Amino acid sequence: MPVSEIERKQDAARSPSVPQAGLYAPQPSSFSLNVLRLAFLALLLYGAAVLLYPFSSVILWTVALSVSLYPVYDWIARRLNGRRRIAAVIVTILTLLILTIPAAWVAITLAESVAQIYERIDFSSMTLLSPPESIKTWPLIGDELYRLWAFAIDNVGDLLVKLGPQIKSLAGSFLRISAGAGLGTVSFVLAIIVMGFLLPASASILRYVNGFAHKLDPARGAHFVELAGATIRAVARGVVGISVLQAILASIGFVTAGIPQASLLTFAVLILGIVQIGAAVVIIPVIIWSWTFMNTGPAVVFTIYMLAVNSMDNILKPFLMGRGLEAPMLAILIGVVGGALTFGISGVFLGPIILTVVWTLFLAWIDEPDPV
Questions:
Q1: pTM attached to this predicted model
Q2: Which of 86, 152, 195, 347 gives 20 to 30 Å between its CA and that of 202?
């Protein structure tokens, strides 16, 4: 062995051993690292949510429209030999023409009608009609009915004056919601335009969505994505879509027949259709009104037309709603009210879709057995 090598080893033996840098340095615990990562991720998500919140209505509308109209877009693209951009332009233009014009009319006239009614509210001058004396001659109940009617006249005025501010405040809230109908219409138009740009890239978007779902649940993620899409299409076409079509046809009948406050009646038909109560609550009284104030011929035509409009949901819903995808009425009702309070008029349509999707996915997650 060379002398230099022997000397080097002797020097190393005499000198104290120095640990390598970082060999015994304290390492942060895995728990601390996870907390830091989660905190940083939460901060990023919060910042993204703050930035996207003003556009939340447009984003939700875009998702609902894209998922609902994708089968139509795909059918048109196949007929055009795969020209997907042209198909997206056609779907966008048709959606704008079919949905935007009625939505703008309802928004404008609804805001005007609600404003007029709000300005006319004066509970201090409201009174009930006096009971006719002929009621007393009715057998058994005549005297008692006359007395109750007269008692109501004496007391209802004071009651209305006391409750007037609260009732008018509630009417003011509805006025603010209806006044936001114009902004909701603008959001709807923007969503349709954004949908037109996203439809050609739908395959790539679906791949990313499936990838994210696979990260959350490798076994059932793709199934949940497919179920969410089917639920959106079922509710958008079988609940919201039918209600919108029914409201449009009803508005045509109301305007043609000269029915007063046609926009309010149209909006009532729309809401009652979405919450699954049915448009008959509005249509039947209007038909009775037509036989009182219209000639016999126009009243007959109006009655036949409105009865056909009233029954169309029972005819179309079995074809448009997916088999086994029943939308719970409570979820739809809460979605309508909560959506209106959160997003205004747009929430009336978006709320039921969102809650129904959440409810369907929750039931699928609970009912499906865990993978072995």
A1: 0.65
A2: 347
